[in-house]
Write a structure and sequence with these properties.
This protein is of the alpha+beta class. It has 22 helices and 22 strands. It has four domains: about 220 residues, 2-Layer Sandwich (Heat Shock Protein 90), CATH 3.30.565; about 140 residues, 2-Layer Sandwich (Ribosomal Protein S5, domain 2), CATH 3.30.230.80; about 80 residues, Rossmann fold (3-Layer(aba) Sandwich); about 120 residues, Up-down Bundle (Four Helix Bundle (Hemerythrin (Met), subunit A)), CATH 1.20.120.790.
Length: about 625
C-alpha cells in the first residue's frame, strides 16, 4: 500500500515475522547483545564506505571522519545508533530489513532446535542480528542515505515488529544510517550512561572507528569517546586480553559462543602482514556448502578491502575465521589480482601451517576442547588429508577414530594411539569402512582380528570411503582394509597359503562358483571368519562398496564389479551346504549364504522378493525335515 508522497506499508515475509516473534519473546539469552549487533552493523557500513572511497574519494569528501554515534534520551525513552557509513537506498532498506533476500532467515528457522540457548547462538551466524532491536524496543525507526546520493534521496523505515513496516522518503539528512529504538517500559535500565558505556567497552572496544556516547537529556549533549578505536590486530599480543580477543571474534564471526583458540601473529620479511585467526567452537550452518562465501577478512594497511577472501586458506579450512592485514598489497587489490599474485602462495602456505599448528597444539595439550573441535569439524580435516598432500602427514596426526578397543562410537583415538598399542609382529594398521558404526562393529570381517586381539579402526563417516585411498602409511606402517583383498595377519608367515586352503575344498568351491558365477568374482575359504558363515570381500583394485554406492547414487556410471565370496568352512551352515545332495536345495542355500553376506556388508539385494521366497522355502523345508519320522 502506498500514497502519493511515496509512503508504503509493506508486510514482512512470513519467515521474518516468525523470527521477530522469537526475538520479542526473549530468544536471546542476554538482551544487552542488541547493542553489540547494532554497533557491529554500523562498523561494517563504515568499513564498506572506506573501501568504496578508495575508488571514489568524493563519497567521503564532505564528511571524511568515519564514526559511530550512540545517544539516549531518558524523556523520550529512546536509544539511537548512528553511523556515517555507506548507507542504504530505498530498495536496499526494504530488501535488508523486510525480506528474506539478505537475512538468511529461512535457513535460520530450518536450523532451529527449540532450545532457546542453542537457537540464540544461531542468530548472528545468519546475519539477522538487526532484529534483536525488538527485544528491548516496541518500535524501531531507521533513516538512511546512501553515499553519493543527494540529501533529499533519504529513506525512512519504521516498524513495531508486529507484521508490517512502513517506508517513506526522508529529506535533508546526512549520509549513513540512524537506528532509533523506542525502549519498552520494562527495559528502561538501558537508558543510563554508565550502563551503555560499560556495554560498549565490553562488546565493542575493538571497533576500529570511534564510538561516541551522549545523553540528549543533558543540556550540553557532550559526546564522549568510549572505545579504543584501534584495530585490535594492530596491537601487541601482550596488550590484548583474552576477553578482548573473544569479543572481537564474536563481532567478526557474528557468533555468540567463544572461540576455542586463536593465533595472533605479525610476519616481517619478504611479505609483511598481520594475521589474527580463530577456531570456532561450533560449525556454521553452511559448512557443507562448498560454494558458500568463505575465507578471511582482508585489510590492506588497516583499510578494509573485502570479506571472505578465500585465497588465503585452502577449502578444507573454510571454518576458520579471522583477519589478514597486509602492508604490501595494493589498496585497489581485487579477487582476480589475488588469484594471480605469485607471492600469495607463500602467505597461503604460512597461514595454513599456522592453523594446523594451532590444532596440533590443542590436540596435544587440550584434549577436551579438541574433542569438541573434532565433533564439529573433523570431517573437513579428512578432506584436507585428500586435498593437501603437502601437509598430509601433519593432518593425519589430527585424525581421530572410533576403534574396536572401546565399545563406543566416540571418535577419540589418534593414529599415534593406535600404533603405540600394536601387537608384537603387527606391521599393518587395520581399518574397516562401513555406512554406520553399527554396521562396522557387526561386520563379520572383524571376527578373526577380534579373536586374535587386534585393534581395528572403525570408519563410518560419509567422507571415509573417499579419504581412505589417501591413507597409505603412517609411522612406517601400511594401512589395510580388512574388507578388501587378502587379509595379512601378524602370524601369517607360518600359515597355509590361500591356494593351499582352497585346494583342500576344491569340489565344494567349484560347485558354489558355478551357481553364483553371475554374482561373484570368486569363491574361496575365508581366513577372516570365526562365527559367521560367509562374507563378501572387495578386490584390492576395486572401489570400496560404500564409495561405489555413493558415486552411483550421484548418477555416475561405473564399470561392473563383482565381490569375492568367502565361506567359513567350519560353520554349521556351510557344513550343511557341503552335505546337501539335492541340487536345487544346494543352489538355493548357496544363494541364501551370498545374500546374508551382502546384507551383513550393508548392501541392498538386487531382488529382495526372491530372497524372501528362498528363505521361506528353506525354513519350511527344515521344519518338514524335523517333523519327519
Amino acid at each position: 500500500m502506498s500514497d502519493t508522497d511515496g509512503r508504503e506499508t509493506l508486510g514482512f515475509q512470513t519467515e521474518v515475522r516468525q523470527l521477530m516473534q522469537l526475538m520479542i519473546h526473549s530468544l536471546y539469552s542476554n538482551k544487552e547483545i542488541f547493542l553489540r549487533e547494532l554497533i557491529s552493523n554500523a562498523s561494517d557500513a563504515a568499513d564498506r564506505l572506506r573501501f568504496q572511497a578508495l575508488a571514489s574519494p568524493d563519497l567521503t569528501k564532505e564528511d571524511p571522519e568515519l564514526k559511530i554515534r550512540i545517544s539516549f534520551n531518558v524523556d523520550a525513552g529512546t536509544i539511537t545508533v548512528a553511523d556515517n557509513g555507506i548507507g542504504m537506498s530505498r530498495e536496499e532498506l526494504i530488501g535488508n530489513l523486510g525480506t528474506i533476500a539478505r537475512s538468511g532467515t529461512a535457513e535460520f528457522l530450518q536450523q532451529m532446535t527449540g532450545d532457546q540457548k542453542k537457537d540464540a547462538k544461531l542468530i548472528g551466524q545468519f546475519g539477522v542480528g538487526f532484529y534483536s532491536a525488538f527485544i528491548v524496543a516496541d518500535r524501531v525507526e531507521v533513516v538512511s542515505l546512501k553515499a553519493g546520493q543527494s540529501a533529499d534521496a533519504g529513506v525512512r523505515w519504521e516498524s513495531d515488529g508486529q507484521g508490517e513496516f512502513t517506508v517513506d522518503s526522508a529529506k535533508d539528512i546526512e549520509r549513513g544510517t540512524t537506528v532509533t529504538l523506542h525502549i519498552k517500559e520494562d527495559e528502561k535500565e538501558f537508558l543510563d550512561s554508565f550502563r551503555l558505556e560499560s556495554l560498549i567497552r565490553k562488546y565493542s572496544d575493538h571497533i576500529a572507528f570511534p564510538v561516541l556516547l551522549s545523553n540528549e537529556t543533558d543540556d550540553d549533549k557532550e559526546e564522549k569517546s568510549v572505545n579504543a578505536a584501534t584495530a585490535l590486530w594492530t596491537r601487541g599480543r601482550k596488550d590484548v586480553s583474552a576477553d578482548e580477543y573473544k569479543e572481537f571474534y564474536k563481532h567478526l564471526a557474528h557468533d555468540f559462543t567463544d572461540p576455542l583458540i586463536w593465533s595472533h601473529n605479525k610476519v616481517e620479511g619478504t611479505r609483511e602482514y598481520t594475521s589474527l585467526l580463530f577456531i570456532p567452537a561450533t560449525a556454521p550452518f553452511d559448512l557443507w556448502n562448498r560454494e558458500a562465501p568463505k575465507g578471511l577478512k582482508l585489510y590492506v594497511q588497516r583499510v578494509f578491502i573485502m570479506d571472505d577472501a578465500e585465497q588465503f586458506l585452502p577449502l578444507y579450512l573454510r571454518f576458520v575465521r579471522g583477519v589478514v592485514d597486509s602492508t604490501d598489497l595494493p589498496l585497489n587489490v581485487s579477487r582476480e589480482m589475488l588469484q594471480q599474485d605469485p607471492d600469495l602462495d607463500a602467505m597461503r602456505g604460512a597461514l595454513t601451517r599456522r592453523v594446523i599448528d594451532m590444532l596440533s597444539k590443542m590436540a596435544s595439550s587440550d584434549a577436551e576442547n579438541y574433542a569438541k573441535f573434532w565433533l564439529e569439524f573433523g570431517q573437513t580435516i579428512k578432506e584436507g588429508v585428500v586435498e593437501d598432500k603437502q601437509n598430509a602427514d601433519k593432518l593425519m596426526k589430527l585424525l581421530r577414530f572410533a576403534t574396536t578397543r572401546a565399545d563406543s562410537d566416540k571418535q577419540d583415538q589418534s593414529l599415534q594411539d593406535y600404533v603405540s598399542r600394536m601387537a608384537d609382529g603387527q606391521d599393518k594398521i587395520y581399518y574397516i569402512v562401513a555406512e554406520s558404526y553399527a554396521l562396522a562393529t557387526a561386520s563379520p570381517h572383524l571376527e578373526q582380528l577380534r579373536d586374535k586381539g587386534l585393534e581395528v579402526l572403525l570408519l563410518h563417516d560419509r567422507i571415509d570411503p573417499w579419504m581412505v585411498d589417501s591413507l597409505t602409511e603412517f609411522d612406517g606402517k601400511n594401512f589395510q582394509d580388512v574388507g578388501k583383498g587378502q587379509l595379512s595377519l601378524p602370524e601369517g608367515d607360518g600359515e597355509m597359503t590361500q591356494d593351499a586352503i582352497d585346494d583342500e575344498h576344491k569340489p565344494l568351491l567349484k560347485k558354489i562358483r558355478k551357481i553364483l558365477k553371475e554374482k561373484v568374482e570368486n569363491v574361496q575359504v575365508s581366513r577372516r571368519l570365526v562365527d559367521s558363515p560367509a562374507c563378501v570381500v572387495t578386490a584390492d583394485q576395486d572401489l570400496a562398496p560404500q564409495l561405489r554406492r555413493m558415486l552411483e547414487a550421484s548418477g555416475q556410471s561405473l564399470p561392473e564389479s563383482k565381490p569375492v565370496l568367502e565361506i567359513n568352512i567350519d560353520h554349521p551352515l556351510v557344513q550343511r551346504l557341503a552335505a546337501e545332495a539335492d541340487e536345487n536345495r544346494f543352489s538355493e542355500l548357496s544363494r541364501i549364504v551370498l545374500d546374508h553376506a551382502l546384507l551383513a556388508e550393508g548392501a541392498q539385494l538386487d531382488n529382495p522378493a526372491a530372497y524372501v521366497r528362498r528363505m521361506n522355502k528353506y525354513l519350511l523345508d527344515i521344519e518338514s525335515e524335523s517333523q519327519s519320522p
